[in-house]
Each structure stands twice: as C-alpha cells, then as structure tokens.
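Collaborator request, handled under Task 6.
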Amino acid sequence: MSHPYEPLSASPDPGHTDLQSNCENCFGLCCAALPFAASADFAIDKNAGQPCPSLRNDFRCGIHTGLRAAGFRGCTVYECFGAGPRVSHSTFAGRDWREAPQTAAQMFEVFPVMRHLHELLRYLAEALALPSAQPVHSRLRTALEQTERLTLLPAEAILQVDIPAYRAEINVLLLRTSELARDAERHKLTHAPKHPKSYGRGADLIGAKLKKADLRCVSLRGAYLIAADLSGADLRGADLTGADFRDTNLCGADLTGTLFLTQSQLNAAKGDALTKLPAGLERPGHWTAW
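Structure tokens returned to the collaborator:
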C-alpha cells in the first residue's frame, strides 16, 4: 500500500480527497485506536487500542456492507477527514502497527489528534471557498497553512499540540466566516428574516418539532438535533457546524448553501429523495429505506 502525501494548496477544495475518509489507504486506525461501548450505535464493547474483531488482516472491515444490520451504526457515521491515511502514510511512513507493533500505542494516540487537525483543515478549506469570506481570506489562508504544518510534524511533536486551545483559536475565524456568509446569504434570499432566531451554541433541540421551519441563515452550531423533525425545513445559509443529526428527520429539507455540513452528519440523519443537499455531499444509501 502506498499513499505519498503532498501538502495541500493554499486554497484547497473542501472536497479534496486528503480531507475525506479513505479506508483503502489506512491501517484500520478507527477500528483499532478508538473505544466504543455497547449501545444503539455499537453491538459490543471495545477498548481503545484493541482491534475490532471484524478488522481483517488487510485492515478492511469484514462486515462493511452490513454494519447497520450488525448493530454498528456508529461506524457508518464516523468521519476521520483523511486523518487515518495521513497518520498511516505520512506520520509513520507506511509502516503499519502489525508490522511494527512497537509503534502501535503511539500511532493510536496520534490518530485522534490528527483527526482534530484534519477536521479543522476541512472547515478552513470550505471557508476559503466562500467569496463572502473575502475580508478574512488572508487570515484563513494563514491558519490553513499553519494547520497543515502541524499535520506534518513528527509523532512526538503532534502529541504536544494543545488541541482545545488551537481549536478555540481557529473557531474565532470560523465564527467570523459564518457571520459574513450568513449576512451575504440573507441579503440574497427573498423575504429572509432580517434578524433570524439565534439558538446559541449547543442548543438543546432534541426531539424538537421543526417541520417546515424557516431556519434560513440561523446558527445551529453544536445544536443537539437528535430525533428532531426538520422535514421540509428550509436551512439555506444555516451554520451547521458540529450539529448532532442522529436520527434527525431531514426528509424534504433544503440544505443547499448550508455552512460546514459534513458527510458524517448526513449519514447520521434520515432523509429521502426530496432532501436537497449542498454540492460535494452524497445522499446516504440508507436514506432509501426511510
């Protein structure tokens, strides 16, 4: 397996392949490094650093096509944003943890840190692609280049990165990007609310009845929308950074022009053929059953 890494450009496409999961070029890190507990999302308990019993010798999942049916829904919504291949083929130069077991503990420790950095790269790339964010493009580009440099550090140095502090620093830029983008979108939309309701970060909207709600240009950053009914809702221009969409009903909802929505969020939700998606994101296969 080979996966030579090239640094990202100063203005990468948000859909850049190095910012997406690519199991073919990873040493099964999410299947070995991360813990999970028996629940609605996982059929069994597994400790951190313990390979999943379904992980094959070639680092592929032995039940990949039947994960949901086998009780591993959590696996189908996980997104590493390309951190797995980066750790496998850049940080550890293509030597897997089975071939070099002495590296396993450190590799498994680096992986979640790299995942945070790649998630930030994904958001920064999207922010740079927004014309409305032009006033902060220079700062966004600098932040992206700085984050890229962090991903190229040796394993020992990566583990020294203060992720909470660094995320907070980048979040200031992303918040400003969100404000600029939502203001621009609000001016384009017919009869858009001049002062859309603000739910506040981490709003508790679990099970909320928001069918056909006008949520244009609203900030739903970090909102808990678990099992909420957003069927037919208009979310154009809404900021969906980190919103929890587990079992959220998005049937017929309009998600075009949303900010910082990821594939893993869609994979956790329920939708149908009438759900309108932003460019670059795919309709999950399980939606056909809803």
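The cover message to the collaborator said: "The chain is about 30% helix and 0% strand. The two ends are 38 Å apart (CA to CA). Please let us know whether this matches your experimental observations."
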